[in-house]
Design a protein that fits this description.
The protein is of the alpha/beta class. The protein has a single domain (3-293), classed as Metallo-beta-lactamase, Chain A, CATH 3.60.15.10. It is 36% helix and 20% strand. It is built from ten helices and 15 strands. Strand 8 and strand 9 (147-152) form a beta hairpin. The longest helix has 26 residues, at 228-253.
Amino acid sequence: MATFEATEGVYGIDTELFDASFTSVYLFDDVEPTLVDSGAAARVDTVVEGLRELGVPPEDLENIVLSHVHTDHAGGAGGLLEHAPDADVYIHEMTAPHLADPAELIASSRRAMGEHFEGMGEQRPVPEENITAVPESGTTIDIGTNSLELVPAPGHSPDHFAVYNPERELCFAAEALGGYLPAAEQWVPPSTLPNFDPDVCEASIDRIEALDPELIVFPHYGVWPETPEAAVETARTELRRFDERIREAYDATGSPEATRRVVAEELLDISPPYGDAVGSFYVALVTDGYLKHHGVDL
């Protein structure tokens, strides 16, 4: 079980989805203990163990804040409520109905994730009385000494929020900037299925830059090791670099599969050190997200 301190009072829990140092959720330990993201359904027990390791009984959780509805970020919410039945679950109003009745979401996730879906697990419904639907403009949650601002940051998905903790000047960027896999020293752009939009991503990068955070943390994965300015600049550069190379590879081959091979060989040097599941997960989603955005029939 791996937990880590992001800064005083904020702790990451490695959900150990597919491999270590790939996906984390964050505990904000305050008057109202709050978890940002739930992890995947199959990793609920790991998150519960992490909470206990950090000294917070899971039944004491007051809030679960979901950055977006993708199964590796929100799929565990229903399972966590079996341990914290009174917790409020915050999610964008657009996708809130999919938490209460996840059948359509499960089917969509199976299509998008392919062979990787089974490792994530099938999520359980979240009771409607636990769900707080957040308007598109965002909201602020007071958790005690600190507050969490849900900042609209679409592009990776239409329902995407970053979470800003102004008292600490800390930004949980979710996947608005992309991600950084520390074991591979690899930046990954925010491309994914089914609704990735790089132009909208650029506006979200601008929005996070305007927050002027002192510290950025990622679900994929951990605390950004350089300056926030470097994260923002890398996000902009890599968003367009991947786009250009993927379009070039597809134009040359006319083949999504051949384009995935180019991405694996030239752009995403992940496995090793990460296992094959992490590498193939990202190669497929990053490549197909860009291709689908550009109208390629996958």
